[in-house]
Amino acid sequence: MTGTNDRPKSLARRMVVKASAGPLREVKVELGIVIMILICIWLVTLGVDGPPWLEVVLLFGASCCGAGWIMWRASRRAKQVLATEEEHSE
After folding, report:
1. Which of 42, 43, 40, 37 is nearest to 70 (CA)?
2. d(CA 77, CA 67)
3. What pTM did the predictor assign?
4. Are the CB atoms for 45 and 60 separated by under 8 Å?
5. What is the superkingdom listed in this entry's lineage (predicted)?
6. How far is residue 57's CA from residue 70's CA, in Å, rounded to a whole number?
7. If you count Cβ atoms within 10 Å of the first and of the last residue's Cβ in the chain, which end, N or C, has fewer?
């Protein structure tokens, strides 16, 4: 051993790209939740013995409810963001 330290003093850091979540961050999270709920409903319909038309109707109904919820939340959030921007611009 020569007593010198062969290790580098600091490791090179990786560049990390950070993106802002944006004004619709909450809506994106809710979209993920709606998709997970739809997947669960689909899995439940696979295990239930029922006519195929009932499975289609159930999934279609759940999809429409989820889409309506996301559209309502997105429009509500967009109105809030626009109102906040108008307050800050004045």
Report:
1. 37
2. 15
3. 0.69
4. no
5. Bacteria
6. 20
7. N
Structure tokens at 70: 């996301």
Residue with tokens 């062969």: 6
Token digits of residue 87: 């307050």
Q: How far apart are CA 40 and CA 60, in angstroms?
A: 14
CB contact at 8 A, 41 and 62: yes
pLDDT digits (tens, 9 = 90+) for 14-66: 777 666 778 888 899 999 999 999 999 999 999 888 899 999 999 999 999 99
Quote the DSSP letter at residue 60. H
